[in-house]
């Protein structure tokens, strides 16, 4: 089948229907607004099993909102949010919590508990949901910490960790139950190049070794394109481009090019909407 | 017109917040059942809220008792009734000053700390992280703190009163020469267990519920920014203090049955 050019409307329609079949996570025509402001307006995307799906877009484009919708933290105004065949907005609290045990969200800040050590942070979900003997729990936690290379940091407090280390600990905690889906919210933001590389390697390795579905939300084009199998670009509350990262980088779409090349002006204007500049300057102060 | 509009908006917002706070309280209490199988979560909070507040409570109680001893002696001695100093100090502390001053100090020390802690947990996405781990923060974080505060408050008030009585004794008997036998016997004869002590305990329990409820709700409802947490902490101290003073009047009127 001849694949339409990425970024075009036709491309979006066809590839969406192709990808919807094997999707673990599926958002269909989702509309979401907050305080009267539209955040998502008819967004459709799918994340396939065992693959890394990237969602890229500028700040405030609604990327994190997408993760919150998938995690059931917020409900859409309309549209469908399907995870593993279940309609997330229709789940009651018990069913939602049962689903959340099979998914993990890695927050931008790591969201580690500041009063617990690294060891206790990773042990937290296991202690909450199981009654494992202390010896087995210790083994499980050390294995998870070894996976992210921080077994030696188990007695440190979160305040003693660097940004990259904190995110690795959060990742160890996220895989404590070997979830079906891991969502990463801006995993590369504020990290040095080495830490970025480490996190990217961990996302790729975990995806391969655990066979999980990964969704990476990021505005870090280089790192995200390096590890993702398929990428969506979000702008103005909808998908403005999609495809495998290489195709996206060759896209002719102005929206896609502006984002991928980091151009300051383009379809997304440099100026925030405002009235006439001269009129504004000359207007009386009281006005 | 703007004034009326703003007033109306303020009233609607206040009623709406009160409604949310009531639903929040119900959800916390209704979901607290499993906590009793993990009692250490509550004892940890009794330590953090109660034991760590002991120093300020005991020092304050000592000085309040000493001032009561001094002021009481100066008044009673005019009528030749200085032997009743023990009774005056004890009744003042057990019925009023113990529960009220403890609640005000409790709001300033433990209440503000609770709000700031929960607000910061919200701002740093720790509560959201917990939700995503299928752990209900109302059960895991809020309920132990609420129960811890409710348990700690009457105990702190009792200690405040006990230390206050000792302070009154130090000043009255030790410095001003009131007879020690009269001090204790007047107190023993005049303080009624049900009318005075039990009513004081009821008051301190009611203050404990009110202050801790306000503190945990403000933290949970805080805008997740530095400014939002600071405002929430501020509101906890102001609302708790006002609520304690107003509630004190209502409870006193009810227990005395004179209004």
TrEMBL record, chain B:
It is found in: Cell inner membrane. GO terms for cellular component: ATP-binding cassette (ABC) transporter complex. Keywords: Cell inner membrane, Cell membrane, Membrane, Transmembrane, Transmembrane helix, Transport. The complex is composed of two ATP-binding proteins (MlaF), two transmembrane proteins (MlaE), two cytoplasmic solute-binding proteins (MlaB) and six periplasmic solute-binding proteins (MlaD). Belongs to the MlaE permease family. Part of the ABC transporter complex MlaFEDB, which is involved in a phospholipid transport pathway that maintains lipid asymmetry in the outer membrane by retrograde trafficking of phospholipids from the outer membrane to the inner membrane. Probably responsible for the translocation of the substrate across the membrane. This is Intermembrane phospholipid transport system permease protein MlaE. It comes from Candidatus Muproteobacteria bacterium RBG_16_60_9.
């Amino acid at each position: 089948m001849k694949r339409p050019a990425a970024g075009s409307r036709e491309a979006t329609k066809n590839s969406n229907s192709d990808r919807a079949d094997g999707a673990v996570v599926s958002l269909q025509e989702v509309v979401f607004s907050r305080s009267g402001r539209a955040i998502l307006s008819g967004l459709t995307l799918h994340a396939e099993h065992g693959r890394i799906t990237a969602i890229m877009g500028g700040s405030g484009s609604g990327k994190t909102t997408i993760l919150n919708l998938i995690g059931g933290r917020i409900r859409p105004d309309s549209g469908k949010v399907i995870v593993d065949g279940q309609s997330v907005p229709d789940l009651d609290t018990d069913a939602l919590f049962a689903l959340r045990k099979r998914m993990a969200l890695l927050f931008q800040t790591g969201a580690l508990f500041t009063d617990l050590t690294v060891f206790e942070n990773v042990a937290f979900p296991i202690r909450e949901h199981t009654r494992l003997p202390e010896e087995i729990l210790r083994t499980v936690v050390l294995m998870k910490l070894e996976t992210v290379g921080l077994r030696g940091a188990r007695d440190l407090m979160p305040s003693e960790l660097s940004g990259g280390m904190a995110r690795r600990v959060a990742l160890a905690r996220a895989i404590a139950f070997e979830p079906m889906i891991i969502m990463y919210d801006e995993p590369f933001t504020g990290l040095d190049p080495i830490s970025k590389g480490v996190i990217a390697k961990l996302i790729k390795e975990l995806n391969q070794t655990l066979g999980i579905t990964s969704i990476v939300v990021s505005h870090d084009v280089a790192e995200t394109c390096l590890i993702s199998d398929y990428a969506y670009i979000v702008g103005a509350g909808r998908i403005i481009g999609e495809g495998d990262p290489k195709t996206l980088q060759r896209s002719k779409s102005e929206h896609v090019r502006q984002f991928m090349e980091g151009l300051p002006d383009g379809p997304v204007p440099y100026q925030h909407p405002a009235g006439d500049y001269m009129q504004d300057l000359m207007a009386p102060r009281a006005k | 017109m703007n004034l009326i509009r703003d007033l109306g908006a303020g009233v609607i917002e206040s009623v709406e917040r009160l409604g949310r706070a009531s639903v929040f309280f119900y959800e916390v209490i209704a979901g607290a059942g499993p906590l009793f199988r993990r009692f250490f979560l509550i004892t940890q909070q009794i330590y953090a809220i109660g034991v760590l507040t002991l120093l300020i409570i005991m020092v304050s109680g000592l000085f309040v008792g000493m001032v009561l001893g001094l002021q009481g002696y100066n008044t009673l001695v005019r009528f030749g009734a200085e032997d009743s100093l023990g009774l005056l100090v004890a009744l003042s502390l057990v019925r009023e000053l113990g529960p009220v001053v403890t609640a005000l100090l409790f709001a300033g020390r433990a209440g503000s700390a609770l709000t700031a802690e929960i607000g910061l947990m919200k701002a740093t996405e720790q509560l959201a992280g917990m939700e995503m781990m299928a752990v209900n923060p109302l059960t895991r974080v809020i309920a132990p703190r609420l129960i811890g505060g409710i348990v700690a408050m009457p105990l702190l008030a009792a200690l405040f009163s006990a230390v206050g009585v000792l302070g009154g004794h130090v000043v009255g008997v030790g410095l001003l020469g009131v007879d020690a036998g009269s001090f204790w016997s007047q107190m023993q004869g005049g303080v009624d267990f049900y009318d005075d002590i039990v009513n004081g305990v009821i008051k301190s329990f009611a203050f404990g519920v009110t202050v801790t409820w306000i503190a945990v709700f403000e933290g949970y409802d805080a805008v997740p920014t530095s400014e939002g947490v600071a405002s929430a902490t501020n509101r906890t101290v102001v609302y708790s203090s006002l609520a304690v003073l107003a509630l004190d009047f209502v409870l006193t009127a009810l227990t005395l049955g004179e209004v």
